[in-house]
Structure formats: structure tokens, C-alpha cells
Design goal:
The complex is a heterodimer of chains A (121) and B (281). By secondary structure, chain A is mostly helical. Helix content of chain A is 55%, strand content 10%. The chains are: A mainly alpha (121), B mainly alpha (281).
């Protein structure tokens, strides 16, 4: 259950983190009842301000995906209505394919890059 | 006489500093101890342990020596003497108390040491539950001891036996807070997630650091409570309650010394490193 944020990306880190946690919940990797790490832990691990992680948790709570119970922390409440796991994968693959073509690389380069990225996680 | 005493103390301090400096470098046996009993086969992993030990020893040594120097200067200047452990003077003139406080500040400094990382660098984290810090039981005891020292301080003050007890209790509480801050710093340090070896090293180091700081915090709490209690000895040391208090004080000092020893970033004398496991080609 790894998340990653890239501050140099044009997508705000808040949005990056929210989308990744939402995806993990939708796919069931973060099961209903599972605890999310405390805000201070996740903020320290991702080198983010606590306010940013707090905003992410609040947004997920507003969507009904998680529930925060004071000192008991934040837990997953439901998988939500989002069931676009395969669509997410297709989107990501489209992005990779586009970059490969723009760089003038071959299919093997794309496969190699994907293999390396998968092994890193 | 005062000049001679000062000279002796300065010489002792210099001797202690030389002795401590000689013990800073980490040997293979030290690294094996921190790594869980066996010297790591990967030299990079061993180097991480070695650097951590050296940094920890250096920061603690500087902190402890700074504390002892403060106690010596303050004690000789303002109290006309220095003491070690429970005594009639204030905590600032006590070698044990200031030395312990200095070691804790040194531990805090070592644990908050960070290699500079760019805020624009890509960061990875896991959402899996993080392991709890070691020895929460000792921390609870330390908090209880700090609370007890404050209670005793107030009671002694109300009984008209002076404010020293409360001053010691407050100083002990400040030191305990430094311990809490240090444990929080350990808890919130970034965790490696993409390498199993780095994760194992991180767990070992975090486990040692949190247990060590818990012991230092307990030592500070017990020392403050014992000292505060020493001001409340009823009707002189010859009475039964007086003897009981003295026994309690001695026990407390033993606890302090034992915890200080166990919190040290070095193996016990009896520790024997296990042979390295050879990796088949």
C-alpha cells in the first residue's frame, strides 16, 4: 500500500494523495475498517505539511470513504461508488504510451521502463 | 581550598572527556549488537549502523559533559560545592542530574539530525500501520515518577520545608518533557519503504533509540522524585520513617544508575557477537 507524491508535478500534492488513497480504497487494498496512518506520520513520511494531509483526510471523509474518530484515528468506512480501477489503469497506460511515442522509443523500452518501475515498488 | 577543589574537578572532567572520546568509535562488535547480534554482511548496512552509533555517542557525550560542566560551574560559584545525586543544593549544582539532562538533550539532538532533503523531491510512503515505539511501560512509569515528584514538591513546600523540592520536581519534569519530545521525534522520522534492508535497519535503530530514551526519561523521573522525597525526611534520619526514606532514596539511585547504563549506546560486557552468515554464491 504505497503512495507517492511528486511536488514538481503540475497536479497539486493534495490531489495526488487524495486520488491514490481513493484508488486503494476502491480496489479493496485498503479494506473497510482498515486504519489510515496518523496525519503526523504520513506528513513526515511524505515530507508534506500536516495541513495538507489533514485536508486529504477531510476530503475523503466528506466523500464518505473514511471516518475520523478523534484519538482512534481515521478508518476506511466504505469502498464508495467509484469502480473505475480498470479505467484508471487504462488512463495510466495511455499516458505512458504517449510519452514513449513522443520520445521516439520502441515498445520494448516501454515494457522495460514499466518492469523497472514495478520492481521499485 | 576552593581553588584546589576546582582544579580537581576540572582535571576529573578532562579525564572523563578523554575516556569518553576514546569510546566514541564503533567497533564491529558494537555494530553487531545494534544489528541484533550479528555483523551485517552488507558493508553499506554496517556503515549505517556505525554512523548512527558514532553520532549518538558523540551527541550524548557532548550533552552529558555540557551538563556536568554546568553543574560544576554553578555548584562551585553559587553553592560553594558540587554534589552527585540527592543533596541539599539545587538541581543545577548536581552532577548526576545535569549530566543526565545533558545526555537526554544530546539524544534529542542525535535523533533530530537529518540529512538535508529537497522539498521538491519525490516522496514515497506506506499506508500500512507503523510499529509502536518500544517500552511504553517505562514511559508510563517515568510520567508517574515525574507526577509524584511534583506532588511531593508541593507537599514539602506546604509543610514549610522550603521550595528546593518543588524546584527539583519542576526541573525533573522539564527533563522528562525533553524525553517525550525525543520519542516523538523518533516516532515521526521518515521511514524507508522501497528497500527491505533499509526497513530492517530503520526498525532496529528506532527500537534501540525509543527504548534508550524511555530509560533516560525514567531515570530523570525517578531521580527527581527521590530528590523531592529527600527533602521530606520526617524528624531526622534516625526515625523509622527516616530510615525508610533513606532506603527508598538508595533504591531510587540504583534504579537511576541501572537505567543510565542500559540506555547507553553500547553493548553489555557479556555481549558476544554471533558469527557472520556467509552468503552462498
Amino acid at each position: 500500500m504505497i503512495v507517492q507524491v511528486d511536488p514538481s508535478s503540475p497536479v497539486p500534492v493534495f490531489e495526488q494523495l487524495r486520488a491514490q488513497i481513493e484508488r486503494l480504497i476502491a480496489s479493496g487494498q485498503l479494506a473497510v475498517g482498515a486504519s489510515l496512518p496518523p496525519i503526523r506520520h504520513l506528513a513526515a513520511d511524505l515530507n508534506l505539511a500536516r495541513g495538507t494531509v489533514n485536508k486529504v483526510y477531510e476530503a475523503l471523509a466528506r466523500d464518505g470513504l473514511v471516518v475520523t474518530a478523534g484519538r482512534n484515528g481515521t478508518t476506511v468506512r466504505s469502498r464508495g461508488s467509484r469502480s473505475t480501477t480498470s479505467a484508471d489503469l487504462a488512463d495510466a497506460a495511455d499516458g505512458l504510451a504517449l510519452v514513449v511515442r513522443q520520445l521516439g522509443l520502441g515498445d520494448m523500452d516501454a515494457h522495460t521502463a514499466l518492469d523497472i518501475a514495478l520492481r521499485r515498488l | 581550598m576552593a581553588l584546589l577543589a576546582t582544579l580537581v574537578v576540572v582535571l576529573l572532567l578532562l579525564g572523563a572527556m578523554v575516556w569518553a572520546l576514546a569510546r566514541i568509535p564503533a567497533t564491529e562488535r558494537d555494530v553487531a549488537w545494534l544489528a541484533g547480534g550479528r555483523m551485517p554482511t552488507d558493508p553499506q548496512v554496517a556503515e549505517v549502523y556505525r554512523r548512527y552509533l558514532v553520532r549518538h555517542r558523540m551527541h550524548r557525550m557532548v550533552g552529558g559533559m555540557g551538563g556536568i560542566a554546568l553543574a560544576t560551574t554553578y555548584g562551585i560559584t553559587w553553592q560553594g560545592r558540587v554534589q552527585a545525586g540527592v543533596g541539599n543544593g539545587g538541581p543545577l549544582g548536581d552532577l548526576l542530574f545535569c549530566g543526565l539532562a545533558g545526555i537526554l538533550v544530546g539524544a534529542l539532538s542525535a535523533e533530530t539530525y537529518r540529512l538535508s532533503t529537497s522539498r521538491s523531491a519525490r516522496a514515497v510512503a506506506t499506508l500500512a500501520a507503523h510499529p509502536l515505539l518500544e517500552r511504553p511501560d517505562l514511559v508510563r512509569l517515568a510520567r508517574a515518577a515525574a507526577g509524584l515528584s511534583l506532588l511531593i514538591g508541593v507537599l514539602v513546600l506546604l509543610a514549610g520545608r522550603g521550595w528546593t523540592s518543588l524546584a527539583v520536581a519542576l526541573a525533573g519534569t522539564v527533563v522528562a518533557v525533553v524525553g517525550e519530545v525525543t520519542r516523538r521525534a523518533i516516532d515521526e522520522r521518515r521511514r524507508p519503504v522501497l528497500s527491505d534492508a533499509a526497513g530492517t535497519v530503520d526498525l532496529r535503530i528506532r527500537g534501540f533509540a525509543s527504548a534508550s530514551v524511555a530509560r533516560l526519561e525514567l531515570a530523570a523521573g525517578v531521580l527527581a522524585a527521590a530528590w523531592a522525597l529527600s527533602k521530606g525526611v520526617p524528624d531526622g534520619p534516625g526515625t523509622v520513617p527516616g530510615v525508610l526514606v533513606i532506603v527508598l532514596l538508595l533504591l531510587a539511585l540504583v534504579v537511576v544508575v541501572v537505567q543510565l547504563r542500559r540506555a547507553s549506546p553500547r553493548p553489555a560486557r557479556s555481549f558476544v557477537a554471533l558469527p557472520q552468515v556467509s552468503v552462498a554464491a
